[in-house]
Amino acid sequence: MTIDRKRIRWNGWGWADHEDHLSGNAAVWAWMADVLGLGGLMATPATPLEDIELPPLRLPAATLDALRAIAGADNVRIDDYERAFHARGRSYHDLLILRAGRIDAAPDAIIYPENEAQVVELLRFADEHALAVIPYGGGSSVVGGVNPATGPGQQGVLTLDMTLMNRIRAIDEVSLTATVEPGIYGPDLERQLQERGFTLGHYPQSFEFSTLGGWVAARGAGQQSNRYGKAEKWLVSARLATPAGTWTTEGFPASAAGPALGTLVPGSEGRLGVITEATVKLHRAPAVKDYRGYLFKDFDSGQAAVRALAQSDLPLAMVRLSDEDETRFFQAFSSLGAQKTIGTRIKSAIQSAVLSSKGLGKDFCLMLVGIEGEAEDVAYAAARSRAIIKAHGGFHVGRSPGRKWYEGRFNSPYARDPMMDHGLGVDTLETATRWSNIPTLYKAVRKALLDSMAAEATSPGARGIVMTHISHSYPDGASLYFTFVFPRDLGREVEQWQAIKNAASEAIAAHGGTISHHHGVGTDHAPWLGAEKGEHGMALLRTAAQTVDPKGVMNPGKLFGA
Ligand SMILES: Cc1cc2nc3c(=O)[nH]c(=O)nc-3n(C[C@H](O)[C@H](O)[C@H](O)COP(=O)(O)OP(=O)(O)OC[C@H]3O[C@@H](n4cnc5c(N)ncnc54)[C@H](O)[C@@H]3O)c2cc1C
Question: Whose CA is closest to atom 36 on ligand 1?
Fold first, then answer.
């Protein structure tokens, strides 16, 4: 069984019954209003589903009967909760639409296939009956990747929710690979692998609500990507179902037999077929996990340390450096959430004294370093990384920040819904570039975000804030991840978001960054893909899609745009 959809929020993040500690914390909201230059915050609750009229169903009864005959009556859903749940992904833009109840497109049927044969038959049926097909894993896309769009002449949308195809088919303990169906959720996959002593090690922040197929199709990155790699690194091979039939990529450890077809699958976002099976590389489950914190006087010195670590060949799982604004924001945010006892006040007074003795004033940057593996390797990497960090001016603050981050590593998305209930906008975007260009790109994107939020300000004195971190690094470069918070312009929120997003995307393209390091393209980034791939590159990709899907059934509007 998949997770019962009613247990997951259809218009927000995570478990429907997740305990909300934030909404009632007046100190947090007063502080937030102050930071954003506002006199106070507004109440902007979401529209309940009962008050929302969904677009009419477009499929005739005979079509629904035919779909039931293929997938089984229980696996074809047309009720409002399922349609609303699958109407968008989970980006800020998506939540604006869902919470306002302005759902202008919803799937006409949600189908839960149980095996590849059903997927093939559904695709053939969609092809013959001019229907669009949207592959859907966890629906955690933040780029419009699962929006139920139709292509020219198409009369309806079938969303294929893949989460009943969730079995581990085989584990090859000799080669350290597993062959797995695509709809398995993160926790289910890791539990089963770890019971056998293995791990894939792919832990995106959306881990609990995203699936293997979505990780591959969106070319994602887990928080420990330094050790376990992005999806393109750990994918060995895949099988895909398309309107033209199935195709399979090579599964060799290495080959010189022409270009590798397998490189087409990560990032294909459903345009080259529905992934029905993926073979992935495994690691032995780590015996030890060591997460620690370090402080730097500024982002520049921290960056130099991240680069030195990335170029050191040490087996680090994660190196995460927050800039001054992110470090300050999270410190304040978490201390407002914590109970201020006499003990914690004394502790923080001692901490400030220690910080100033190390030359760290109010503005400093937090770095978290995670190391996973066998005890001996971890001990060696911990000592070496500590020495490298020290040589770059980093100050070791022990395991406590690392432990706190690790324990709460999937929690911060839960802050978005309460923020949206208080009239705030909050979004993230990410890019990557070579090390030599990181400072330029960082400044340009930050400036574009700050300037466009100022231009979109709702009242005199109101402002937005930007926080940045580096969390995926390579010998030749790194990703930059931006979070921005701003007062919402009620009534024109989508236009406001689009203006800010465009400004940041233009800055990324103009300053040598990729339009996405791990979120993917979907609809939101499609206008910028052409500049990155070039005319012939785009033609090659489009030709590949047309070869397996001549009528454009598969996920219309994503990747290549409308
Ligand atoms: C709070 C939050 C935190 C996030 N953190 C991260 C992060 O740390 N790292 C990261 O990489 N991403 C992150 N994301 C983005 C998102 O979780 C990833 O893109 C994830 O890989 C999507 O997986 P999913 O199963 O939810 O896929 P979906 O959202 O269902 O689909 C994503 C894309 O893949 C396609 N697709 C899905 N399944 C298949 C299939 N079987 N065959 C073909 N195409 C398919 C869809 O059509 C769509 O285009 C985050 C998102 C949120 C909301």
Answer: 214
Q: Is 135 in the pocket of ligand 1 (CB under 6 A)?
A: yes
Q: Whose CA is nearest to atom 27 of ligand 1?
A: 214
Burial code (b: 16+ CB inside 10 Å, e: under 16) for 490-508 equals eeebeebbebbbebbbbbb
**Is there an atom of ligand 1 within 6 Å of 89 CB?**
yes
371 three-class SS: strand
CA distances in angstroms from 50 to 55, 80, 103, 286, 352, listed in the order given: 14, 9, 13, 47, 51
User: Which residue from 10, 206, 405, 529 has its CB within 8 A of the most atoms of ligand 1, so it is best to mutate?
Assistant: 206
Strands 424-434, 288-296: parallel, antiparallel or unpaired by DSSP? unpaired
The answer to whether the CB of 249 is under 6 A from ligand 1 is: no
Q: Name which of 398, 294, 292, 297 is nearest 357 in CA terms.
A: 297
The pLDDT profile of the chain, 562 residues, written as one tens digit per residue, is 688 999 999 999 999 999 988 999 999 999 999 999 999 999 999 999 999 999 999 999 999 999 999 999 999 999 999 999 999 999 999 999 999 999 999 999 999 999 999 999 999 999 999 999 999 999 999 999 999 999 999 999 999 999 999 999 999 999 999 999 999 999 999 999 999 999 999 999 999 999 999 999 999 999 999 999 999 999 999 999 999 999 999 999 999 999 999 999 999 999 999 999 999 999 999 999 999 999 999 999 999 999 999 999 898 999 999 999 999 998 887 777 654 545 555 456 556 656 666 767 778 999 999 999 999 999 999 999 999 999 999 999 999 999 999 999 999 999 999 999 999 999 999 999 999 999 999 999 999 999 999 999 889 999 999 999 999 999 999 999 999 999 999 999 999 999 999 999 999 999 999 999 999 999 999 999 999 999 999 999 999 999 999 999 999 999 998 7
CA–centroid distance, residue 214 to ligand 1 (Å): 4
* Mutate which of 15, 118, 185, 205 for ligand 1 pocket (most atoms within 8 A of beta carbon): 205
With contact defined as beta carbons under 8 Å apart, do 431 and 514 qualify?
yes
